[in-house]
Amino acid sequence: MTKKIVRENGQPVEEEVLDEEIIREPQEEIILTGTKTYDGYGGGSGDYGDEDVSYDPDAVYEILATPLDTIHITSGFGQRWGRLHSGVDFGLAQGSAIYAADDGRVYFSGDGGGYGNLLKIDHGNGMQTYYAHCSALLVSSGQQVSRGQKIALVGSTGNSTGPHLHFEVIINGNCVDPLDFLKL
């Protein structure tokens, strides 16, 4: 949507819609309910309900493409030293290609504190994916990406002990086990 907004003293006093375009039709939303508040991993914060969520943790949904050519899990999802490890770590050589797990729009590309170089992709259906510790980010915030598109390179930036991809799946603000959504 493109709007013309007239402001007086910084406050909008008049708005006129100049153009409207539907980019993508709405999709059914995946809805989960979480109860646990988590104070963040890697410097971030948010509500990551890993208890009492309405998705079946025993199911494998297989709706995402694997983000790497070779899968070697070095650390799984779950509690670590009294806090939630909110994703899965895949160990791979520095500079290996990282791919988008599904179509979506990049809504963050940059320094993620403890996450190091971080990409966040919104897939438009209540699901986001995070790609952390990258050595290089190949896409920018606001950019549309396609499933399987090369988006970054494996690295060891931020709070990291060696080259790997920290991969998260977030559904409506809840971190869930990424392995439930990948066919490995």
Automatic annotation (TrEMBL):
GO terms for molecular function: metalloendopeptidase activity. Residues 1-37 form the G5 domain. Gene3D superfamilies: Glucose Permease (Domain IIA), Resuscitation-promoting factor rpfb. Keywords: Signal. The keyword Signal applies. The keyword rRNA-binding does not apply. It comes from the Bacteria. SUPFAM superfamilies: Duplicated hybrid motif. InterPro entries: Cell_wall_metabolism_enzyme, Dup_hybrid_motif, G5_dom, M23ase_b-sheet_dom. PANTHER family: MUREIN HYDROLASE ACTIVATOR ENVC (PTHR21666:SF270), PEPTIDASE-RELATED (PTHR21666). This is Peptidoglycan DD-metalloendopeptidase family protein. It comes from Candidatus Allocopromorpha excrementipullorum. The lineage of its organism: Bacteria, Bacillati, Bacillota, Clostridia, Eubacteriales.
